[in-house]
Structures are given as C-alpha cells and as structure tokens.
Amino acid sequence: MNDVTDAGTTFRQRLDQVAADTERLLERLLAATPLPDERARPQRLMDAMRHVSLGGGKRLRPFLVVETAALFKAPRERALMAGAALEFVHCYSLAHDDLPAMDNDDLRRGRPTAHKKYDEATAILAGDGLLTLAFDILAREETHPSAAVRIALVAALARAAGLGGMVGGQMLDLAAEGRFDGGTVQTLDAAHVKLLQTMKTGALLRFGCLAGAILGEATPAQRDAVDRYGTLLGEAFQIADDLLDVEGDAATVGKATGKDAALGKGTFVSVLGLGGAKARLTQLVAESETALGIFGRDGDVLKMAARFVAERKT
Amino acid sequence: MNDVTDAGTTFRQRLDQVAADTERLLERLLAATPLPDERARPQRLMDAMRHVSLGGGKRLRPFLVVETAALFKAPRERALMAGAALEFVHCYSLAHDDLPAMDNDDLRRGRPTAHKKYDEATAILAGDGLLTLAFDILAREETHPSAAVRIALVAALARAAGLGGMVGGQMLDLAAEGRFDGGTVQTLDAAHVKLLQTMKTGALLRFGCLAGAILGEATPAQRDAVDRYGTLLGEAFQIADDLLDVEGDAATVGKATGKDAALGKGTFVSVLGLGGAKARLTQLVAESETALGIFGRDGDVLKMAARFVAERKT
User: Fold this and answer.
1) What is the DSSP letter of B294?
2) Which of residues 41-70 of B touch A (CB under 8 A)?
3) Chain-chain contact of B131 with A129 (C-beta, under 8 angstroms)
4) Rounded to an integer, what distance in angstroms lies between the CA atom of residue A302 and that of residue A282?
5) Which of B47, B163, B179 to mutate to test the interface with A (most CBs of A within 10 A)?
6) Rounded Cα–Cα distance for residues B89 and B153 (Å)
7) Closest residue to A102, CB basis, from B36, B124, B165
8) Residue ranges of domains in chain B
C-alpha cells in the first residue's frame, strides 16, 4: 500500500480537500443571516464563533466522518454536515479549555485565543453557542432525510461529548494536575491515563467514525469494525500527541512542547516510557488496519489515516 | 375561573407535584452509575452538576411541558423527560451566567453558586455537561418512541437555546451593560429590550410549550396556539421579573432587588415606565388566555399558569 488512493489522488490531497470543503461549510453555517426561529445573530458572538472555528486545523475529525461514510457510499454532502457538527464541538472544547480558569492559554494555532482576542464572557458564550449549534446541525434534514439516522447521530454525539466522554475527561485531566487537592499532582497509572485520554480525546475521534457508519446505515458487523478502528485511532492519536510533546520541535508543532512533563501530567510516555509508547503506537496502527479487514481495498484510505495520525509531526 | 382545576387540586398543588416529580427524575438522570458508552461519571463533575440542578426552583419550565403535553393527552412520563432536559439547559445557563466573567454572582437561591462552592473550571464544565446531557435525554426512546418526535424536540431546543436564542440573548445583555465598549451603557429602546428578553428568557419558556405540542403531535393550528401562548407567557414572565426588581422585597424575592436599575439595565420598566409595564402585563395575560381559546376548558391550567407568572412575588 502506498499513499496513492484508488481515485489517483494522494492521501494528503484527500485530507486537504475535506478541509477545504469543511471550511466553506463552516463559513456558511456561521453566516450573519438568522435562520427561522432565530431572532438575531449578535455580531460579536458570531465573530467570536468564527474566530474559534475558521481558518485552521487539519480537520481530521470531519475527514474521519467523510471517509467512513464513503465506505458505505453515503453522500459526501451529508457526511460534511455531520463533520461540521463534530468540528464545532471540537472547537468549542478548545475555546473553553483555553480559558484562564482552565489551561490559561494565550495562543492557539499561532493566533490569540478567544478570551484574549475578545474577553472571557464572549469566549464562554461562543463555546456554548458552538456546542448548541452542533446539535442544531445534526437535527437538520440536510444532514440526513431519515429522522432515525439523525437522532442516532444526536445520541452518539451527546454521549461522546458529555459527562461520560469529553467533558468528563477534561474534568479528570484537571484533577490529575492537582487542581482540586491543594496542588497535589496525582500519580497516574497506565489504566488511569488511558481512561482519561479515551474520554478527553478518544471519544470525539471515535464518534467521527461512528457517524460515518450511522450515516451509511452500516450493518452491526460493519459498525463494530468501524467502532473498533475509531477506538484504536483515538488511542494512537493521543500517544502521537504525547510523543510530539516530548520529541517535537515547538516551531513545527505550532505550540509549546515539553509542557506536559513540566505540569507533571500523566501521559502515555510517562507511564509507558518513550520506547514503550512507540511500540504501543506501532501495535495500534497494525490493529487498526486489521479492524478494517472486512472492507478490503475500500478500507485503504482509513488505514492511511491511522498511519498519518501516528506519524504526524504537527 | 378559580384556581381549582378539574382534578379537584389547586393550581399550586399541581405545580408542586411537577416540581417533586422533576426533582426525582433529575436525581435519577444524575445518578453515579455510567450509562452505555460513558466511560466514567467523574465524581466532582457530578457533584457540581447536582449542586447546580437539584433542590431548588419552582420548575416552571418542566411544568409548562407537562401541562401543554396534557392538552394532547401525551403521557406524563415523557413530558417529564423533555421537561428535565429543558430544566438542565436552564440550570447550565444559570451556572455560566453566575461566573465571575459574566454576572459574578456568589449566591443563587440562598446557596453558593457553583464557582464559589467548587471553582470556575468545575462550574464551566458542569454547565457544558448539563447542556450536552439535555440533548442526550431528548435522544432517548424513554422521551418518545418516535424518532421524528425526538428529533423535532432536539431541533426546537437547539434553536431556542443557541446563538439566535438564549446564548445570543445573554450576549446582547452583556453588550447592553456596556461590557465591550469601554463601559458605555447602551440606551435601549423598547424594541431592543423586547428582542433581548425574547432571546434570553422567552425562547426557553416558549420551548417548554412547544415541547408539549411536539410530544402530543399537535395539529398545526394547535401548535400555533401553543406557540403564541408560550411567546406571550415569556414576555409576561420577564415583565413580572422586572417589576419584582423594582417593587419586590429582597427577602421575599430571594435575591437582591434594585440591581437592574443600579446596572443601568434596559428593562421593560425602564422603557415602558412602571404603569406602562403593569398595563402591558395585564394585556399579555388576557392575550395568552385568548390564545388558548381553541382548547376550551382544557386550557384552564395554562391560563392559571399565565396569571401565576404575572402575579408571582418570588
């Protein structure tokens, strides 16, 4: 398998195309004109929501929705809608995580964070607005004509993003930093690091894959395969992230490195060691390829995505 | 019409019964045991979500769902589920509005606000978790067996709570206080006050009524009637709130009064005058009763609810 797909395009071209299509869609979804039952779209709020969402990122999560949906020949336009909802949830979480009360970050992708460019209240509201908009989008017929499919997407996103998924994971992460016990940093074992990261980062990546299967009305066996792939990919993503924090060059990564170790954070590298983390990453890529076995050659793009996630330098 | 309903109970008994049933349901929905696809329910997060949601309030919003659903003989258990989702959205908005970056309130219903009892990060995450949980609840079969009904609830709640509804209204409110223009308080006209309050407060109250109509699979004419009633009730609620701030006794109201005027806030009283606001309130109650005309005697409880909202002293 090389990185040229059946369509004759490279993996990177495919990824970039989804990113471009997603950017255009996010812009449309954040247009100034109110929709039915919206009384107004206040300008400062919309500006902040656009600042948080537009002009950046690889759009990996929408890519997973689009390429998983493609396994089942589900229309690309629908997958882009679900991908946009997922991306808005990802962006809201960054805006809230960056707040002074949370990680207190001034820069994100080389630009001021929402509370630096605007103010804290606006950053909080922009996040709240993006999270709510995500469910608005999933509820639209443009996302899928079947109400059963749309409500399955809502159910899966709420579960992935909520108290038992992303929000809960952020809570565990803050607790591990010793934020609530007089500053005592927790010493995490491997199981706790995996739980925390599965919730904080993995759940949304897994949803990206599940969404494609839901849109494509996959069989239970197909859905299980995609679920397993998404779970493995989520863990691989986080290990690669932890490795970048240790080995990456700040200029290339685009954010400060060595930060996790400085904070005493429990990461996969801290509990598995550098060699152990790299070995686990290799194993995860292999297992994710195996999980896609039932799709034959159709699974090649997602296999490339797993390698891309594992080997990325930014 | 006196305040005794057909069932022989008083309006207040009916309201209290919904509040008691809602309290029990919210407790169950916030239980410690994770649901499928929830990896864990972190204790500090759950404690904060419970602190924000349990043990307080008249539960007016769930009451509107239950009593509107009753117009259409929709099962009460389903209405309580949709009412719980709505109440969680209301409670999340209070937790975020109380934050130091927003209204900076230390007390709510005589108890410390979430960021005082816990910390700002936990208060933000508790709000995020409650908002997400609301959509999780609406997506469950327990709320309604029909996917079409459930997705209609999701669509309506997202629209009411989002950037063109509640979140947008809070943004306009902060802007009116002069938060973003070097402290210059905006002088609002009546139309701007109405827009702001329709979004910030009215949209969720209206959703309470719409939710009952959606659950009851109302005809378009019935839905329009309920929609109109909910819109009028929302405005009446806010005028009563503004009057309480001017005329209420802090000990009875349970929070500081005179605060809006001190902040230079544009309220219905400030733009209509005290007499004008009272006259408008009387008119709104009469119009809301007219809106319910097509339901005959079945509409009596909701008529009492409009009078209750207009005449409440807390």
Assistant:
1) G
2) 41-42, 44-46, 49
3) no
4) 16
5) B163
6) 13
7) B124
8) 11-311
What does DSSP assign to residue B297?
G
Q: Which residue has the tokens 């689009």?
A: A66
- Cα Rg of chain B, angstroms: 19
Distance between alpha carbon B85 and the CA centroid of its chain, in Å?
11
Residue A99: alpha-carbon gap to chain centroid: 19
| pLDDT tens track, chain A, 314 positions | 456 666 668 999 999 999 999 999 999 999 999 999 999 999 999 999 999 999 978 999 999 999 999 999 999 999 999 999 999 999 999 999 999 999 999 999 889 999 999 999 999 999 999 999 999 999 999 999 999 999 999 999 999 999 999 999 999 999 998 888 777 777 888 899 999 999 999 999 999 999 999 999 999 999 999 999 999 999 999 999 999 988 876 666 656 666 776 666 778 998 999 999 999 999 999 999 999 999 999 999 999 999 999 998 87
The type of residue at B78 is: R
Q: Do B38 and A198 touch (CB under 8 A)?
A: no
Provide the token pair at B233: 């009730």
Q: Which helix (H) or strand (E) segment is A151 a member of?
A: helix A147-161
Residue whose structure tokens are 């997506």: B139
CATH topology of domain B11-311: Farnesyl Diphosphate Synthase (1.10.600)
